[in-house]
Amino acid sequence: MKLFSEIKQDLYSYVKFIFGGGLSLILNLTLTYLLTEFLALWHMLSYGLALGVEVIFLFFFHSRITFKQNGNFFRFAVLILAMSFLNWIAVYFLTVILPIPYLMGIILAAGVISILNYVLNKRLVFRAG
Q: What are the CA-CA distances from residue 114 to residues 34, 41, 46, 64, 73 (Å)?
């Protein structure tokens, strides 16, 4: 019964993890749009600024809601960069090496990488003690 309880808790945390990622995407898109359209910033500068805000938002979201404990921001930022690179490699593999349509490749890669990202965040960034 304890194993089932732990799996249930992990699944619940994973759903919160994915929800936070979705919120951060909306935040990123909104900030990029607002900075580009209303402040007339170059879209890549707007996107870069939005990414910075997104990383900070995600760290606090996961600290307070997903894992409910303080984490290591430096580890979090490094992990975000590593997961982004791994995601890029996975999309390349799926869409260039294997002839999978690019949108399907992006979705498949994001699904698999999100599980790894959750596990690594739980064990390396937001671990207890």
A: 28, 31, 25, 19, 19
Per-residue pLDDT of the chain (129 residues; tens, 9 = 90+): 677 778 888 899 999 999 999 999 999 999 999 999 999 999 999 999 999 999 999 999 999 999 999 999 999 999 999 999 999 999 999 999 998 999 899 899 999 999 999 999 999 999 876
Q: Is 64 in the same domain as 79?
A: no
Angle between helices 102-120 and 73-92 (to 10 degrees): 150
Centre a 10 Å sphere on the Cβ of residue 70 and count the other Cβ atoms it contains: 12
Q: Are residues 82 and 114 in the same domain?
A: yes
CB 59 within 8 A of CB 73: yes
Count the domains in the chain. Answer: 2
pTM of the full predicted structure?
0.87
Start-to-end CA span in the chain (Å): 25
Q: Which amino acid is at 20?
A: G
Write down the residue that tokens 């596990």 correspond to: 119
